[in-house]
């Protein structure tokens, strides 16, 4: 079999990746940008005291610090009685960094770190009972970006986590609350606890305030290239690496034929993602698949080069006003960061 190219330009629409259950399990570690995340490297914003308070509490949860006799650590000491912590906050306040820090700091042998969609994809690939057997006896499960908008997936995860907690597994989870969504920040934790009502008492909820660090130094718009700039950018990337080059509509059609659990393999080996003739979404299913794809691109720290419509404008107002608002806003935040990388 011919080895895959390591340099040049490829088309994602030509890739048909496969991913077996054991490979999916092996991938349950923090993504590259958080491979070395620690509590020490988390920079709490002094303008938002809850960031430092959360860091202190999680250090106790992970066994990296002892609760003090007074002050905030009184709360931390109470949190030790619960097997799970849930971090509630907006985009870019460091929740994933802190979650990865918990993973790295906790001195246990069997621990896993994955996004909500990775765990549900694993259930889909292996079946519920085999997934339970796989994780039973694990000491820590970290779940990034817990989703509440799919009742079926939420019920499956609630049942899975309930079985694991009963066997001694500790849990750490995050979810996103967009800072400009009126009222949502106040109720995100309650939404989470309501949806996982069967085991809500297992979680200590922690609110983290702050601004999106990805937008602190940018104007909030994704970079758009001319055709000439696009060609030059991909040519440069292809000299020492592997760049993808796809028409936006062709990629969306291909994503519909690839299970989201395989998106990580779809971008394997790439150094740059190229998208031609980007245009706004007209179909919500296509938009949601693209969000899942961008999550994997962002985790892999891949820059995006694009022509056409600015990628922060691809989700129409009616989509942003709907039930998947949080997902779309998260994707916009990541798209802006990836095009400027």
UniProtKB/TrEMBL annotation:
**Entry keyword set:** ATP-binding, Cell cycle, Cell division, Nucleotide-binding
Biological process terms from the Gene Ontology for this record are:
cell division
Query: Which InterPro entries does this chain map to?
Result: ATPase_AFG1-like (IPR005654), P-loop_NTPase (IPR027417)
Pfam families associated with the record = AFG1_ATPase
Q: What is the name of the protein in this document?
A: Cell division protein ZapE
> What organism does the UniProt record list as the source?
Microbacterium insulae
């Amino acid at each position: 079999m011919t080895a895959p190219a390591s340099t040049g330009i490829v088309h994602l629409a030509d890739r048909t990746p496969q991913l077996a259950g054991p490979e999916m399990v092996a991938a349950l570690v923090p993504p590259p940008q958080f491979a070395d995340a620690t509590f020490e490297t988390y920079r709490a914003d002094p303008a938002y005291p809850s960031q430092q308070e959360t860091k202190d509490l999680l250090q106790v949860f992970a066994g990296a610090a002892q609760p003090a006799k007074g002050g905030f650590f009184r709360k931390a000491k109470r949190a030790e009685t619960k097997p799970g912590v849930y971090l509630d906050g907006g985009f870019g306040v460091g929740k994933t960094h802190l979650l990865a820090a918990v993973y790295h700091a906790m001195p246990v042998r069997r621990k896993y770190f994955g996004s909500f969609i990775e765990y549900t994809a694993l259930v889909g690939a292996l079946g519920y009972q085999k997934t339970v057997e796989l994780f039973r006896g694990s000491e820590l499960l970290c779940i990034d970006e817990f989703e509440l908008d799919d009742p079926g997936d939420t019920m499956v995860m609630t049942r899975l986590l309930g079985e694991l907690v009963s066997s001694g597994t500790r849990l750490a989870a995050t979810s996103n609350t967009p800072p400009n969504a009126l009222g949502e920040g106040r109720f995100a934790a309650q939404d989470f606890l309501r949806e996982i009502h069967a085991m809500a008492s297992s979680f200590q909820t922690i609110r983290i305030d702050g601004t999106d660090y990805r937008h602190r130094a940018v104007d909030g718009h994704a970079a758009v290239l001319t055709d000439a700039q696009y060609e030059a950018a991909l040519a440069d990337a292809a000299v020492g690496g592997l760049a993808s080059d796809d028409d936006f509509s062709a990629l969306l059609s291909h994503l519909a034929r690839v299970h989201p659990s395989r998106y990580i393999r779809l971008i394997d080996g790439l150094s740059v993602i190229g998208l031609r003739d980007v245009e706004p979404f007209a179909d919500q299913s296509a938009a949601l698949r693209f969000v899942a794809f961008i999550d994997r691109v962002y985790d892999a720290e891949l820059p995006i080069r694009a022509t056409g419509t600015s990628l922060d404008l691809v989700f129409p107002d009616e989509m942003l006003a709907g039930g998947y608002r949080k997902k779309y806003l998260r994707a916009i935040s990541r798209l802006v960061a990836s095009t400027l990388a």
